[in-house]
Every structure is written in structure tokens, then in C-alpha cells.
């Protein structure tokens, strides 16, 4: 009798989820990345909805998939040749149930509303997983900082903030960096915000420079956090990073500090990439050289082989997944691992995958990993270290003090361990032990959903 009732409630939950998903597609046509992110979450919520029907009431899911506010704006600026350029700016304030909107800003030519919505939606659950009081949001522009002078980046960024400042604030919405937005861009944004508002509201942005209110360890946090998370998965199997071969995609902020921590833990990182191609260095990546090329000189990764003749550069970035490795850390961009790449990794013996980037694996790729018993750390959990330390930066700004690198790193480490433990626990509780995709989604969802139910229908 109980089994029949359980099956009926599972079926009712699955049908409800499907109906919500169909409405999302109809209402948000052509936003494929947003559809993908919503589908992954909704499908994994079926067991929790079946067990607790309260989450199917008050239009909770329908409200959850609709952003609280979407802001789109014109960003005019003048290039070095004196020509007027016009880009499009976005901020999606998705959900503030547990705290002010929090999430990065992305500058990349591929940015459109669907990308910002997928990132903002993911951010809701990721931020909830950190256990800290931060809601979900994301922003960006189709501006391409590559090949632009510092002055062009400054003029664009000032114009972007001249509109964005109306919608953000330390208790309202706190942006940070993402692809194409690092310390330089955050500095220009902060300078313009301060100039317009006429005061030093430190907590309005995170990822700030240490000399004007930033937090130690924020630069390292996403990459380090991802490696801490994967290390928890490995420890549970009685192993670690020591002596493992690791492939890391990208060579930006997340990749560089994932490489650093993996190396510190005794791994050999043999490859990394940028959007043009990848390098394979069988002796192990020279991280000092990568930092010089990418963080200081802003050059292409292909330059690496000029200094390291034993390394090989290959044009095109997807080939990086054909390199045999024990651990793969996709840290570049969305959907960089498709089904084919996942199968290649599995047939070459990959044991663990930790998603440093947001949604780097397609739904089909995730299925391949899970079906083949690969330890899989999903993005919402594995890359939450960055936003967690951003929330710690907000705390330090409010208290008007700064913690040491070691203090913040220890807090980051604890947060990643808790996210892992809570994801494992939720996966077990809802009948899919070891499936951290479902575990992380449910653990994040429950926190947000309970807060939304407390607030009434808003
Ligand atoms: N920064 C953070 O704290 C956090 C970032 N993330 C996610 O991590 C990922 C990387 O971000 P971050 O390191 O900050 O960004 P960066 O801009 O610092 O670096 C991005 C890296 O990815 C490469 N890349 C970008 N787009 C593509 C593409 N279409 N194909 C292949 N490679 C590409 C870039 O190469 P190129 O230089 O050639 O463009 C670069 O090497 C993103 O998914 C981001 O959303 C997640 C949590 C927090
Ligand atoms: O630090 C933050 O606020 C946001 C980081 C981010 O954009 C992300 O987690 O994807």
C-alpha cells in the first residue's frame, strides 16, 4: 500500500515538474542555456516534491523559475579611435528569499539574456548551499574585453556602472566578477559607483582589491574551493590528489587557482587551455609561467611553448578532453564537455570530475559520468567557494576589519566540506546515494523554498 502511494506521489510530482518546465520553454523561447539549467534542477526535485507536497503549493516552483526582476540597458562608450560603440548590459535579480542578490558580472561576446538567466538561476541554489545569507543574481554584457586597451575597458565599465548603480547596493544586490571581469574591471566599477554615490560603500561589490576593502583569498577561492570539494570526494574513497594526473580547462581565474591547489596537494597538472587552444605539458604545467602570460601580460596560452619547448600546443579547445587523466576539472565555460568528450574521458580512465565553471557539462555528459561511476562534483556545489568568500568579504566590510589569508582559507575549507556533507546527506535521504547532482540541488532548494514559503506569495 505504502509503495503504491509512493509511486503515485512520484508520478504526480514528475507530472507537475514537467508542466512547469513546459511553461518555462513557452515563456522563454530560444534561451537554451536557461532551459538546460532549469531542467536539471526540476528533474532532481521530484523525490523532494513527492515526499513534501507543500513544495508543490503556492505556485512555489512557478515563482522560483521567474526572475524577481530583469534589467536590460544600453551601454554606449567611445573607443580609442573616437568611434561610438554600443553594447547591451544585463542584471537579472533572480531570487532574494535568503539574502541580497549576489552573483558575478560576465563580459563576453556570447552574453545574451538566456546566459545571464541560466547563471542567475544556478546562483540561487549555489548561494543557498554555502549556508550564508545571499540570494541569487547575475549580470553581464556582450562587450569583449579581449584586444581592448585599458582605457577602453575603463570607459566601457564606467558607462556600464552609470546605469547599473541604480539597482545595486550593499543590502540590495552585490555584484562580483565572472568571465572577462577580474580585479581591473571591479576596480573601475567600484571607482565609478563611489563617484556617483558620493561615499565609500565597500559592501556594494566583492572581488575588490585588498588595498580598498577586498578580502584575502577571494582571488584563489573558486579554484581552491573546487579542489577542496573534489578532495572530499576522493577522501571518501580512501584516496587523494597525491600522484594524480589532472587536466584543467581554461587559464583564467578559476583554472589558475585550481591548478595551484591541485599542485600543492601533490598532483601533476598536465594540461590547460584558452578559447583558442590547449597546451599539454607532460612534465607538469609551469604555473608561474601561466600566471605571467595570463594575469600579467594578457597573452594567448599558445605563447607557453616559447618558454617550454617540451610542451605541445594544439589549436581548438575541445581536444583537451582526449588527454588521459585521473581527474578532470572543467574551469572555462558552459557546455565545454559534451557526451562525446565525457565518453572519451571515461574510456581513458577518469576517476573524478569537479566542475569549476558554471554548467560545463551537458546533461548527456553528466549522465555518462554518473552511469560509469565517475565521482562527479556538480558546479553549484564544487564552485561555490568563490561566492562563499565573497559573502565573507561582505561580512568583513560590514565589520570594518580584515581577516588573514589563513583565517579566510580555513573558513572556505570548512564551507566546502559542509557543502559536500550536505549534498551527500540529501542524496542518501532522497534515495540516490552518491548522486551529488541531485543531492546538491535538493539541499540548496530546500533552504530557498522554506524561506519563500515563510514570506507568503511575493
Ligand atoms: N571567477 C569566479 O569566482 C567564478 C567563476 N565561475 C565560473 O568559472 C568559469 C571561468 O570563470 P573565470 O575563471 O572567472 O573567467 P576568466 O575570464 O578569468 O577565464 C575564463 C577562461 O575560460 C576560457 N574561455 C572563456 N570562454 C570560453 C569558450 N567559449 N571556450 C573555451 N574557453 C573559454 C578563457 O579563454 P579566453 O581568455 O581565450 O577567453 C579563459 O581561459 C566560468 O564558467 C564562470 O562562470 C564560477 C564561480 C565563481
Ligand atoms: O562572488 C560572487 O559574488 C559571484 C561568483 C560567481 O559569479 C559565481 O559563483 O558564479
From TrEMBL:
CDD domains attached to this UniProt entry: NAD_bind_2_Glu_DH
Glutamate/phenylalanine/leucine/valine/L-tryptophan dehydrogenase C-terminal domain: residues covered: 215-456
SMART domains in UniProt: ELFV_dehydrog
One Pfam family from the record: ELFV_dehydrog
GO molecular function, a single term: glutamate dehydrogenase (NADP+) activity
PROSITE patterns, per database record: GLFV_DEHYDROGENASE
Keyword line: Oxidoreductase
SUBUNIT field: Homohexamer.
Family note: Belongs to the Glu/Leu/Phe/Val dehydrogenases family.
Record-given protein name: Glutamate dehydrogenase
Organismal lineage: Bacteria, Bacillati, Bacillota, Bacilli, Bacillales
Amino acid at each position: 500500500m505504502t509503495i503504491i502511494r509512493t509511486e503515485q506521489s512520484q508520478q504526480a510530482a514528475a507530472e507537475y515538474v514537467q508542466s512547469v518546465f513546459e511553461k518555462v520553454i513557452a515563456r522563454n523561447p530560444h534561451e537554451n542555456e536557461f532551459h538546460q539549467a532549469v531542467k536539471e534542477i526540476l528533474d532532481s526535485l521530484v523525490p523532494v516534491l513527492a515526499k513534501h507536497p507543500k513544495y508543490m503549493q503556492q505556485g512555489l516552483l512557478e515563482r522560483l523559475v521567474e526572475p524577481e526582476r530583469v534589467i536590460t540597458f544600453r551601454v554606449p562608450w567611445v573607443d580609442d579611435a573616437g568611434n561610438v560603440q554600443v553594447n547591451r548590459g544585463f542584471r537579472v535579480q533572480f531570487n532574494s528569499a535568503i539574502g541580497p542578490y549576489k552573483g558575478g558580472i560576465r563580459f563576453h561576446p556570447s552574453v545574451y539574456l538566456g546566459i545571464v538567466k541560466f547563471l542567475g538561476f544556478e546562483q540561487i541554489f549555489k548561494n543557498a548551499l554555502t549556508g550564508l545569507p545571499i540570494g541569487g543574481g547575475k549580470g553581464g554584457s556582450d562587450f569583449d574585453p579581449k584586444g581592448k586597451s585599458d582605457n577602453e575597458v575603463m570607459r566601457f565599465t564606467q558607462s556600464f556602472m552609470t546605469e547599473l548603480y541604480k539597482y545595486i547596493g550593499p543590502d540590495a544586490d552585490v555584484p562580483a566578477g565572472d568571465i572577462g571581469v577580474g580585479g581591473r574591471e571591479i576596480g573601475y566599477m567600484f571607482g565609478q559607483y563611489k563617484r556617483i554615490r558620493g561615499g565609500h560603500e565597500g559592501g556594494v561589490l566583492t572581488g575588490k582589491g585588498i588595498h580598498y576593502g577586498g578580502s584575502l583569498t577571494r582571488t584563489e577561492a573558486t579554484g581552491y574551493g573546487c579542489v577542496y570539494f573534489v578532495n572530499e570526494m576522493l577522501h571518501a574513497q580512501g584516496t587523494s590528489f597525491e600522484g594524480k594526473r589532472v587536466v584543467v580547462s581554461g587559464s583564467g581565474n578559476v583554472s589558475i587557482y585550481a591548478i595551484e591547489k591541485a599542485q600543492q596537494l601533490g598532483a601533476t597538472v598536465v594540461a590547460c587551455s584558452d578559447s583558442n587552444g590547449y597546451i599539454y605539458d607532460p612534465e607538469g604545467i609551469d604555473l608561474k609561467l601561466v600566471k605571467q602570460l595570463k594575469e600579467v601580460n594578457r597573452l594567448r596560452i599558445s605563447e607557453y611553448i616559447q618558454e617550454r619547448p617540451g610542451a605541445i600546443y594544439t589549436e581548438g579547445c575541445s581536444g583537451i578532453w582526449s588527454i588521459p587523466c585521473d581527474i578532470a576539472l572543467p574551469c572555462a565555460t558552459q557546455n565545454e564537455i559534451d557526451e562525446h568528450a565525457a565518453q572519451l574521458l571515461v574510456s581513458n580512465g577518469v576517476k573524478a570530475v569537479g566542475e569549476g565553471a558554471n554548467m560545463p557539462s551537458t546533461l548527456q555528459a553528466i549522465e555518462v559520468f554518473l552511469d560509469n561511476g565517475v565521482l562527479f562534483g556538480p558546479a553549484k556545489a564544487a564552485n561555490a567557494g568563490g561566492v562563499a568568500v565573497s559573502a565573507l568579504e561582505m561580512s568583513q566590510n560590514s565589520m570594518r576589519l580584515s581577516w588573514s589569508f589563513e583565517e579566510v582559507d580555513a573558513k572556505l575549507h570548512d564551507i566546502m566540506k559542509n557543502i559536500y556533507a550536505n549534498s551527500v546527506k540529501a542524496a542518501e535521504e532522497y534515495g540516490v546515494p552518491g548522486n551529488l547532482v541531485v543531492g546538491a540541488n535538493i539541499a540548496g532548494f530546500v533552504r530557498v523554498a522554506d524561506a519563500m514559503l515563510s514570506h507568503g506569495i511575493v
